[in-house]
Amino acid sequence: MRQFFKPFIRIVHGVVEFLVHCLFKVVYCGSGQKMPPIKDLLLLESATSVAHKIRTRKITSVQVLDSFIDRIKEVNPMLNCVVAERFDQARREAQAADDLIRSGTIPDETLAREKPFLGVPFTTKDCIAVKGMIHTSGLVKRRNCIAEDDADAIACLRAAGAYPIALTNVSELCMWWESANTLHGRSSNPYNTNHIVGGSSGGEGCLQGAAGSAFGIGSDIGGSIRMPSFFNGVFGHKPSKFVVSNNGQYPAPITTEQTSFLGIGPICRRAEDLLPLLKVIAGKNAPELRLDEPVDIKQVQFYYQDCDMGSVGVSPVHHEIKELFGKISLHLEKAHGIKTKKVAIQRFRKSGPIWFANMKTPNGPSFQEQLANLEGSINPYVELVKWCFRRSDHTFIGIVTALADKGGCKYGDDKHTYLVEERGKLRRDMEDLLGDDGVFLYPTHPTAAPFHNEPLVKPFNFSYTAIINVLGFPATNIPMGLNSEGLPIGIQVVAKTKNDRLCLAVARELEKAFGGWVPPSVEA
Q: Is there a catalytic annotation at residue 377?
């Protein structure tokens, strides 16, 4: 029966998914809006290049800030990715950076070493604390919450000379892969506004794809950096477990296990920014990653798998994404004489159940308590009725998640124990495969950005990224151009824990070979 049931479910899900996609094509007829062309060529540069030009007095921080403020004002009415700004405070900080540089009291070499991003403006998602700004995580009940202190990662960036200018949109409580909530609304994809930006760092991925800040900071417990980076055509890195501090992230992980799954990391348009940004936000833990050690790409072992071997309820990987693995293999062989090795790790078909089981906690707040901001509990049945009449403060998916929260396996039961053991076996299999010099190329997501609300019929597609979180491995989304519909596609590269530098080296190699981020049209 089980052998018959799973193929049957796959067929039914595939038919439903196809029909819904066709329906949305009719609903969202036309190509949607696309982001306006870039007029200011400064927006095309990497954060590293911008920092160097500020430091060497070729441009000023105030000039850079004004360029990004203008771009935010130009694209945000269309995309709704920025939910709060601090432009006035940022202008004072930009002026202070320019004054410090002009004073000449600190040599350029010292500034480059101690304040590598001096004068560079950045953005972050509205669940990572920035002192004096809202800290809502997309929850109506937190609309008046103001962060009293910077998150640790933001404090590290300030110490490196960067300054925040705005907060970006998220999904409600950061637990869905479309960034929409009843407090700030829904964000739209810069390549086609009929499509999603991903979640939960969706507003941040969107703003980076639209060239709205020099770089961004996101967080990722199930793909919340890599999916938005994938959908918006930019780079995003989820660090190894326990390297970057999660202090200042809301909601906070409940257990040490969950803390190991959550990673705060950089989102940016240029691969060269990933390593220096990771080095900054890792703070005192940065030496553990050996980021200063050079990576010879010819000495890296490349493994790839172009699908999850057939998970139930997960979309098949689109052929245009599968074709990327062949293109990468051909490039590596021609350019470096590297032979990639295709693998077929069967346990990846259990990715979704493994993630859900390992996210279970022995106690702690339920999701319906979290939706009440830990001030009691919502009644999801009442909220569902209210939602039908547009009277609920919560999203449909938030309410459904609360209803489903107590479903599935229970912490400590036989199924939970089995899936935790499967996670351990998969981790050991991957560690044996990768060793200390290997990387694993894998789809970031099975399809390009769906239409708005379409994720409701394929909710488990996030399992391609989520499984990497519970393994504790670092992973980087690498943009690989646009598909036939003009939407970004790419792949993720995974390495063994603490081997982030291999992921970042591969990102730079593939950017050089395939172009990386594809900007909108540029006006000369």
A: no
The tens digit of pLDDT for each residue in 369-409 reads: 999 999 999 999 999 999 999 999 999 999 999 999 888 89
The active-site residue, picked from 188, 200, 351, 392, is: 200
Q: Is 219 a catalytic residue?
A: no
From 67, 188, 224, 229, the catalytic residue: 224
Q: For residues 247 and 264, give the distance between their C-alpha atoms in angstroms, rounded to a whole number.
A: 10
Polymer length of the chain = 524
Kindly list the strands in the beta sheet with 341-342, ordered across the sheet, starting from the edge strand earlier in the chain: 82-85, 163-168, 121-125, 216-220, 263-268, 235-238, 475-482, 488-495, 438-443, 301-304, 341-342
Amino acid at 314: V
Q: What is the pLDDT of residues 421-479, one digit of tens each?
A: 999 999 999 999 999 999 999 999 999 999 999 999 999 999 999 999 999 999 999 99
Catalytic one among 61, 67, 125, 219? Answer: 125
Supply the pLDDT for residue 350: 97
- DSSP assignment string, 151-219: -HHHHHHHHTT-EEEEEE---GGG-SSS-EETTTEE--BTTBTTB---SSSHHHHHHHHTT-SS-EEEE
Residue in 179, 202, 216 with CA at minimum distance from that of residue 68: 216
Supply the pTM of this predicted model. Answer: 0.97
- Active-site residue flag, 200: yes
d(CA 32, CA 471): 38
